[in-house]
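Summary of Year 1 activities. Much of the first year was spent building the evaluation harness for sequence design. The harness presents a backbone, in tokenized form, and records the residue chosen at every position. We chose the following record to illustrate the format because it has been used consistently in internal testing since the harness was completed.
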């Protein structure tokens, strides 16, 4: 029997491009403060210092709250890896003729609606 995930996960985003002494914590909303108080003290301290994190509800996979996202600074390697993953996913998607057809229909619909400029 498969056990469903419960609880929450705190995902820390890369901020290695920003020295710790240059992290700028944001001002937290009352909701963020409530979520923050529910976390462990050491994690609270990191977030209050400016560390960018998202708190995820593991049962449903939704974001509960995020903090300091302006401090996210991915490395060049991470940017390249993300670009490669997106490119490969789009390439696989477009290999299916049905997906390619739906994409072309979507583009035409957006042009008719005026949501994309005509080329």
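For this record, the design step produced the sequence shown next.
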């Amino acid at each position: 029997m498969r056990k469903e995930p419960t609880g929450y996960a705190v995902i820390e985003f890369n901020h290695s491009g920003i020295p710790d002494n240059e992290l700028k914590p944001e001002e937290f909303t009352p909701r963020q403060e409530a979520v923050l108080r529910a976390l462990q003290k050491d994690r609270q301290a990191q977030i209050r210092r400016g560390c960018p994190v998202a708190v995820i509800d593991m049962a449903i996979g939704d974001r509960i709250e995020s903090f300091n996202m302006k401090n996210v600074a991915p490395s060049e390697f991470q940017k390249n890896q993300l670009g490669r993953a997106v490119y490969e996913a789009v390439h696989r998607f477009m290999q299916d003729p049905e997906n390619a057809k739906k994409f072309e229909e979507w583009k035409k619909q957006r042009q008719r609606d005026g949501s994309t400029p005509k080329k």
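The chain is about 45% helix and 15% strand. Quantitative recovery figures across the full test set are reported in Table 2.
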